[in-house]
Specification:
The complex is a heterodimer of chains A (154) and B (390). Chain A is α+β, with helices and mostly antiparallel strands and 154 residues long. Chain A is built from 4 helices and 7 strands; from the N terminus they run ααββββααβββ. The two termini of chain A are 25 Å apart. With 390 residues, chain B is mainly beta. Chain B folds into 2 domains: 183 residues, Acid Proteases (Cathepsin D, subunit A, domain 1), CATH 2.40.70; 137 residues, Beta Barrel (Cathepsin D, subunit A, domain 1), CATH 2.40.70. The chains are: A alpha+beta (154), B mainly beta (390).
């Protein structure tokens, strides 16, 4: 664990010296988890599950879980807290795809208000909850490790 | 605070003074704690199963007021939010200590978001005394932002026509729209301080936060009661009901004997068990337009309504709701063919449903029911909130 922390610190220092924080995430390497943690000023805990690990970043009012496959790719994220984290940073390369699909959905007539369920070309996004406590998840179905079901992403 | 006549400087801009069916108790025979709420019959508040009302906003400490119609009644959010484009009276901008204006970005579960400034206003609900409270003045261009470039990192609703409301009256389970975590965490992504067109997330002390105006009322401040009639199986073009302010504080808001109370967890969630699956984060929300829950046996509608259920015959369903107290109830409900319902052109349905990964008891749940919403930390004869009772 000590070595892991040191590695993380090194990554964080590299990150800090690199200037602008680049959150990362969906579809990216595990190192991006640390960028998120640093950008949020949070703490991270790692937990192993069969076929993947879950990196949990905790800050006041928000918990973000990043699901990492054995090959080191982040294939899902979940969040829960008083607001919504910066999804542009969390979805990274997939954000525009999300926003386009969301805009299309909102332009639909009749536009109804309900928990979000969105499938884009590469992504599944769901959001629910209410004021003060909202939660959501996004995953890349094609990156889901074998043995992992969407039900495991909570 | 002294009682203030509801509409003194009445402005035609948004709604007529004393318009028919209005919810302002000062004009009609309504008790002062009764807000009239409606579905249908409006060109702004025009989404099916969208419950709306009117509120009066005044310049703080003055009698310069404006009554604004088409305000979404939302038990799933907290606080008053009004599009700046329909406000024609000046309010008082909330500032961070160096004098920078405070903005807010609020997100909703449908993925939509609203950006604008936080301003102090006097808010008048029905015939109640005015309360002075920070409200969200929705303005996509506030602090040099735009509908597509803003701190929400989303496309925010740009005007009442896009949003389907002039504003929101958030009267859910809580007093503040963020609470203690926004007081502690400056990286909350809800409250922002703006210098020119650069906005950064800031910690917001509780008094600065947008708040549920009900909890600030001098007496009817421990919750609300939603009383809506039921509608026929194929819906109705309009519906009129009441939001009664206060629980057990007046002659018209005492809980009836035998009512079941459901205390929520600290996050405002109840547990719903449906078809053997437990949903520990289920919500009861007037702002959701239907019942939303997963059921793979219910067929989805053909395009473009594939986000809704379309059973060939109306499905009689049932789920159990549990509070964190001993409160439990089996709730029967019906989901009909959404495409057929929408074809009627009606505005309100008690059997509209669609898929979701969670369980969301939306507006249909409230039809034909009397639902009590007890605010966190506030005591009533039902107990201390957050709670529901029905």
């Amino acid at each position: 664990m000590g070595t892991w922390v040191q590695t993380m610190l090194v990554i964080m220092l590299i990150h800090l010296t690199a200037g602008t924080p680049v959150w990362a995430v969906l579809g990216q390497a595990k190192a991006s988890v640390e960028k998120d943690r640093a950008a949020m000023g949070g703490q991270v805990q790692s937990k192993l599950a069969p076929g993947y690990s879950v990196e949990t970043i905790t800050v006041v009012g928000m918990t973000i879980k990043e699901y990492v496959s054995l090959d080191g790719t982040v294939f899902a994220v979940t969040w829960k807290g008083t607001g919504v984290p910066n999804l542009r940073l969390l979805f990274d390369a997939y954000f525009d795809e999300y926003l386009d699909a969301l805009t299309e959905l909102q332009n639909k007539k009749p536009r109804l208000r309900r928990p979000l369920m969105l499938k884009t070309e590469n992504l599944v996004i769901e959001r629910s909850g209410h004021a003060r406590n909202m939660w959501g998840r996004a995953f890349i179905p094609s990156h889901l490790p074998a043995m992992v079901s969407p039900k495991d992403i909570q | 605070m002294a009682y203030r006549a509801v509409v003194i400087a009445c402005l035609w801009f948004v709604s007529a003074c004393g318009s028919s069916g209005g919810g302002n108790g000062s004009a009609g025979p309504q008790p002062p704690n009764v807000l009239t709420v409606t579905v249908g019959g409006s060109s702004v508040c025009r989404i099916v199963n969208q419950l709306c009302t009117q509120v009066t906003i005044c310049q703080p400490g003055t009698s310069t007021c404006q009554t604004i119609s088409d305000i979404l009644v939302d038990t799933g959010s907290i606080g008053v939010r009004i599009f700046g484009s329909v406000l024609s009276i000046p309010l008082q901008q909330e500032v961070e200590s160096p004098g920078h204006p405070i903005g807010e970005c609020v997100s909703f579960i449908d993925g939509s978001a609203l950006w604008g400034s936080v301003q102090l206003a006097d808010v008048v609900l029905a015939g109640e005394p005015a309360v002075t409270v920070p409200i969200h003045v929705i303005a996509p261009t506030f602090a040099g932002q735009s509908p597509s470039q803003n701190p929400c990192n989303s496309v925010v609703d740009s005007d009442p026509r896009t949003a389907g409301f002039n504003g929101i009256l958030g009267i859910g389970l809580f007093t503040h729209d963020c609470g203690i975590s926004c007081e502690i965490n400056d990286n909350n992504n809800l409250y922002f301080s703006c210098v020119a067109s650069t906005c950064g997330s800031i910690a917001a002390p509780l008094p600065t936060q947008v708040q549920n105006p009900v909890w600030l009322l001098p007496s009817d401040n421990n919750g609300v009661i939603l009383t809506l009639p039921n509608v026929p199986a194929m819906g109705a073009p309009v519906l009129s009901g009441s939001v009664i302010l206060g629980i057990g504080t007046a002659s018209n808001n005492s809980p009836p004997p035998g009512i079941s109370t459901f205390t929520t967890d600290q996050n405002g969630f109840l547990t719903t068990i449906y078809n053997g699956t437990t949903f520990a984060q289920s919500i009861i929300d007037t702002g959701s337009n239907g019942y939303f829950f997963p059921d793979s046996t219910l067929p989805l509608c053909p395009m473009p309504d594939q986000d809704f259920y379309c059973p060939s015959a109306a499905a009689d369903l049932s789920a159990a709701i549990f509070g964190v107290n001993a409160g439990r109830a089996t709730v029967p409900f019906q989901v009909a063919n959404t495409a057929n319902l929408l074809q009627t052109g009606n505005a309100v349905f008690n059997n509209l449903g669609g898929p979701s990964s969670s369980f969301d008891w939306g507006l249909p749940f409230f039809l034909g029911r009397v639902v009590f919403v007890g605010i966190e930390g506030q005591l009533s004869t039902l107990g201390t909130g957050p709670l529901y009772a029905f």
